[in-house]
Amino acid sequence: MQKLLTRLQRFRTGSPLSFRLLAYIIVFSSLFTLISSAIQIHSDYRKDLSQIDRRMKVIETGYTSSLARSLWALDQKLLQTQLEGILSLPDIVHLRLKIEPDSELVMGTIPRDGKTISHAFELTHRGDGMFTLGELTVTADLRGVYSDMRQRVVEVLTTQFLKTFLISILIILIFQHFVARHLSTMASYARNFSLNNLSQPLKLDRPDSPLNRHDELAQVTDAINQMRERLVADVERQARDAEEIRKFSKAIEQSPSSVLICDRQWHIEFANHKFAQLTGFDAESIIGKHPGMLSEDARAHRENRQLWQSIRLQVQRVGVWQGEINSVRKNGERFWEQLIVTPIKNSNGEATGYLILGEDISIRKRYEQQLLRQANYDILTGLPNRMLALDRLKLALAQARRESSLVGVMFLDLDNFKHINDTLGHDAGDNLLIEAARRISSCLRGTSTVARLGGDEFLVILPGLTGPEATAQVAERILKTFAPPYLLNGQEVFVTTSIGIAIFPNDSDNSGTLLQHADAAMYQAKHKGKSAYALFTPEMTEVSHERLQMESLMRRALEQNEFELYYQPIVRTDSGELCSAEALLRWNNPGLGMVMPDRFIPLAEETGLITPIGEWVMREACFAAVRWKETMGISIGISVNVSPRQFRDPGFIFTVMNALEASGLNPQQLELEITERLILDNTIETADILRQLDQSGVRLSVDDFGTGYSALSYLKSYPFDTLKIDKSFVRDVMTEQDDAALVKAIINMAHSLGLRVIAEGVEEEAQTHFLQHEGCDYSQGYFYSRPLPEDAFREWLETNHRVR
Ligand SMILES: Nc1nc2c(ncn2[C@@H]2O[C@@H]3COP(=O)(O)O[C@H]4[C@@H](O)[C@H](n5cnc6c(=O)[nH]c(N)nc65)O[C@@H]4COP(=O)(O)O[C@H]3[C@H]2O)c(=O)[nH]1
């Protein structure tokens, strides 16, 4: 019982459904039992009543004749006995016998508060007729019936209630076991159901029988589990979507391009970090603004209004706008931006916003502009280059044709530029070009063009001239501005220029030909002596042709064996004894005749042909010296000229060593003549090459001393053995006091530095006396001998072999 109560209690608290169910079952089943019991009791009551009624009828039928006989016979005793017999019948409590005519016999008592039922019947005697003897009224007491009925009600109610209650409990227990506890499990599963335990399916604690598998609980469980699976799938999809969105938003946020997202009305909704970095605008502060209206600059607004109008139209029409725009940063600074503007469309293809991707292309733009500049301008001087110059020339010619005016074309070349570049170094050369460009430009008016064609060549275009004389005036102005010295490497250097002039349309109406003519005129100017200008004349074409021809002939001269070495003796000044010879190059061309080095060596230097030629000279000179020793027994030194370009050739030392090795000449007998200008270059490479040559035993001399920049200091730092005074000083020692003083000073200075001195260009005896007097060690010149071909030189040796 206790157990039952506890269970009931549990139902009441933990399982309201079970409790309610119990209550309903009890109430309904009790009602039902009550009604059915009432019907039953009522029917039993009716049965009891009808039984009494039947009993009355039985009394009537059973006793009517016997009582009538007793009355007829007036047998009182029998009557008494018969009445007592009736009264003893169950429930009969009262008998009233009315005897005709007026006596009455009453037996028994009628209960005062009890319910009774009476039945009366006549007692008759059938004889000759029918005689009514009396009437008997039988009264039955209904209390027994009622008491039975009450007892039955109590019994029925009690038993029915207990039955109902117990059955209900049973039903509830069954319900609880088979349904309610599973519902509770479901409820608690549903209560605890969260995103964290989506993986656990709902499981009911009941056997997995085929019956269980298909009942309603199984269906609900399946439905819940399916719902869970769908939810898991949804959650996973959502997580995936969220991850993708996170990824995309990270990508956008960290994108190296600036990103703006605008709504349909072009109001900014989002700006990424790069945008803020690029423009200086804080992302928060520009939300809601139009992308073209961010800066405060009214001018930018005006520019942008039209631009963004066309962007909007194109995006609507074509679906994309791409271009480069000049944007403004928050601080007002302008920068170049490459923009791509596209609509953001929804699944129906309607634009819901706009995506603006931007990239800072300022560097690229700068680079492009630089490239454009580089393509058209000379980097060093900033002047237009050959390409742009030719364009401008063509434009000027076209304009001149329209206006019937003249165009002057000037070709300028710096005299000795190569030499300055070689000796003072490239930096000095560059500075010279910059300064020369500045000076040329300063002589021209706005419509003229000055361009650098390359190297030390400049082109001046003078458009819109009315007469050719104007070109001469400009040329003179330019020559004049070149007069003041240039300051290069701290030294004052005089640089001149040669100018060639051709005039359109007089000399040609074609730009290419005009340039060629100006070039030819420039060579003519150079030949005039430097710092000159020349106007083109038709004969000049021949000169420039000659130059070209010479170049192509020189390229074949080595193969054709057209080069020859001449030798000029170098003697002791005091005794006239022979001590060495200088090898001097000659070019013996069948067409050109004997070409002197001054005519072809500069061209050989320009074209680079000097390297193979110099190699040939070196070998030839070394072999000659060895031959003289071998065939004539005369051992003298041999001097070989080395030009700057040759000296700087990476294979130069190898060339020298090779010649010495191949010929077997003692390195001490080889003297390399290096011009003063070359060593002024003062580079580490020059010093290194000179040191290596010195270490190999080769002697080194400074050639043409005095013609360069007369910087004496370098002589100390290089391993020179000899100094050759240039013939231009020696020539006038007897007539020019200054030259004499200079020669004296050079001799003293050289001696103080431990150098021997050779005087070049000694032509007269008086000069030998002077030099002897001043202590000049060696002399060379026509006075002793002109440079001679080998055979003649051998003859000279045989007759004048006073060798030291
Ligand atoms: N007026 C006059 N001139 C005299 C007298 N004595 C000699 N000379 C000339 O003076 C030049 C001396 O040679 P340089 O100063 O080295 O000047 C040489 C040298 O710098 C260069 N040269 C000659 N041969 C070679 C060579 O094989 N290689 C290189 N790189 N340059 C060479 O060509 C220059 C000219 O050579 P050359 O015409 O042979 O001219 C020679 C020679 O003929 C004289 O008493 N009076």
From TrEMBL:
Name of the molecule in the record: cyclic-guanylate-specific phosphodiesterase
Domain PAC: 321-373
All residue ranges annotated as the GGDEF domain in the record: 405-538
Named cofactor requirement(s): Mg(2+)
Membrane-spanning segments: 21-41
Annotated source species: Marinobacter vulgaris
Protein EC: 3.1.4.52
Domain HAMP, chain residue ranges per copy: 177-236
Entries under Pfam families matching the protein: CHASE5 (PF17149), EAL (PF00563), GGDEF (PF00990), PAS_9 (PF13426)
Keyword Transcription: no
Top-level lineage group: Bacteria
